[in-house]
Amino acid sequence: MTFGNEYPNSQARQPSYPYTPRNINFPYSHYYHLHRSDSSPAVSQPDSQSEKKQIVDGHIKVNIGSGQGLNLKAGAEVGGKHGLGFNADGHVAYNGMSAQANGHLGAQYGIHAQGETHLDSSQGAGFNTEASVGGKYGLAAQAKAQVGGGQWAGFNTGAQLGGSYGLNAGADGHLGMSQGAGINTGLQLGGENGLSAQAKAQLGGGQGAGFNTEAQLGGDSGFNANVDGHLGFSQGAGFNTGMLIGGENGLGAQANAQVGGGQGIGLGIKGQVGGHNGQLGFNFGGKGNESKNSD
User: HSE on the CB side for 41, CA within 13 Å?
Assistant: First the structure.
């Protein structure tokens, strides 16, 4: 179980900075550019690279198209790619609206942030935000939410500190007619061979009520434990617990119980030592009575 810094929208919407100025004649009377006009009078200055360097650059563009609604784009850079910059654009049409924005302070290891939101008849309403400090091995966080669009409501949050082998945490939830209500949380420290934990719960959605918890230390060959349970009309009530030390050839134990769900009453216990497995269980009612003990 791995919780990485997976942000679905972070690849789809890469920040458009750094902004590279280009001298283009736009056919909009309301287009403004912060370049100094060549035709304006200026005092002659010595010709040097430091004085030719552009410190501030910005742009604003508005477009109203037939059938496409209103589009607005704006951006600015102060101090080049290692300075401060932002970009924003929005769209408004008869069937909805959307907006995106991103900004940065410093270069790769500085502060980066972006956000977007949408509202329309097909997708409903939603937003997504992301931020990072210190680059790949620094601090990153994400949050998004959705209402409507065939899914009713949902949310997702995530955070990461120190890259793949650092600390990762996430939580998500959903609420809908077909899916019911559910929540899932996860935590990981030290990568795949470190410490990880997960808990989730579900209510409705044709499954009744259920929960699951898991913990792992040291990867597949380390320590693993889990507990889960369920309650529903078709499944009845049941729970399952398990523990494993040392991987497939180590020491393991598992216990489960079931009441109802077309299976009557059942209880099972399993054990593992090295490559040898054993189990003990019984069943009362359901398809038939069973009692077995095998090594």
Answer: 0
